[in-house]
């Protein structure tokens, strides 16, 4: 049976991630990295493997994250009693604050406690490494069971009686009020030392230590004090949970192939880092997390991309979380996909596309972080100069655009806009780049791009900036025009563009689609949550604060019970769609909330100035 995407909760140790269903079953886990082959993948097919904990006769379940953490607590209520399940991916022992995620082991911890009465519990652990291709072999061992399969070795620590059957461990037992026990699943490759068994005491200690690790990070990082404070803070923790700590990379989402269209083929692997996410993610980190994380992300992007522009003027749009360039896509025909949405894909062929917006994202990121980048090393400085020069050289070419259209290249307005941003940012930080001699050239090309956008990107008949030069199709990416400062938020053309997007690109719930028109793929995707938050942000910049708050509230109505958002919302059913949780959606939430906060503060200051 397909589990709704909204029924999942996220676990993270800043190396890898797991998704746990409302019923207490781990349906997705990749060890040891976000982009490693899955260990459990029932999310994408019944043969993908799972690790379930269920209470016999359970009538209701409730769940929450333990305060200021990504440690999940699920409460099962049965007629006979109440049981709490605490789930965590272990953090490195004693790692706190900025060190969160350092030396995190590939270890899943599951703790059970009977709160009242008595409960009968059924545990099933059925790993299926390498995306379900391998049925491993379990053997009894002191302190639990040892498993092997393919390149994987793993140890399940447990003290309850169990049986082994066809690559699955099954344990049934009873807990009385006040009794508790833990399970620990540790992974290793066949090249590493054999994973160990853990005592009950040590496993409980590690769960507690993981709680404290997350709480220490929140205590020193989260200072936002505007509206929707708890939701913004939690989104900041979600973004931190999507950081690959060894490099500072941020995955767009920890999953692959959750569809944009149920039963369709718009199914992509999002376990990579997109350059296009850079600057708005930097801003979100600044608001809801810490400039340190933003700086590490920028350093990762600069390091991953720096060698490329010395060979070519085109910059790759995305990278693996270790900085890998080759992300070749392939299909996994043995998996049926979520809700029979085939094909299941790993890798992402979009890495070969040409997208001209990436230059602006990188240089805007450097501009956002300029106060923290007081002294650039020579390689990074030279690279950013090359980025600006490349933007000046290619801005007038066609590309696939921010939405990675799998059709003919076009002169997308957003791509031109971000080339303008690249050169505008380069001019602003020319001293940091030690390139004052280039300011005149960069300024000249920047002004050419501005004139082209105003002449060819604006369609007077439509009353809006449009998807591409000469087009009559509205596109939500045009909401970035005021967000990046190309035009003031209250410019008449921006106000008209906002109105056009509201009237032509929103569904019956008021959520925003990305664009109109053919994109080279069959099927119709859902409304896009990031774009809905962009609309709220643009409305705030337009001083339409009441409308901005209404748009924002419509979007956050789709946050699930543990504060998570996917990429899209099904326009018919209202169900969450797409990879989950989606960094872009949480970035949009943070930035929109802050824009509304700033707009309200400005209105208050203006009013106080008026009455005084």
UniProtKB/TrEMBL annotation:
Any one Gene Ontology BP term: trehalose catabolic process
According to the entry, every stretch annotated as the Trehalase-like N-terminal domain falls at 3-144
Pfam families per UniProt: Glyco_hydro_15, TREH_N
Sequence ranges assigned to domain GH15-like in this UniProt record: 229-593
In terms of InterPro entries, this protein maps to: 6-hairpin_glycosidase_sf, 6hp_glycosidase-like_sf, GH15-like, Trehalase-like_N
Which taxonomic lineage is given here? Bacteria, Pseudomonadati, Acidobacteriota, Terriglobia, Terriglobales
Query: What is the protein's species of origin?
Result: Granulicella aggregans
Q: Which Gene3D superfamilies match?
A: 1.50.10.10
- Example GO molecular function term? trehalase activity
Q: Which PANTHER family match?
A: TREHALASE (PTHR31616:SF10)
What name does this protein carry? GH15 family glucan-1,4-alpha-glucosidase
Under the heading SUPFAM superfamilies, the entry gives: Six-hairpin glycosidases
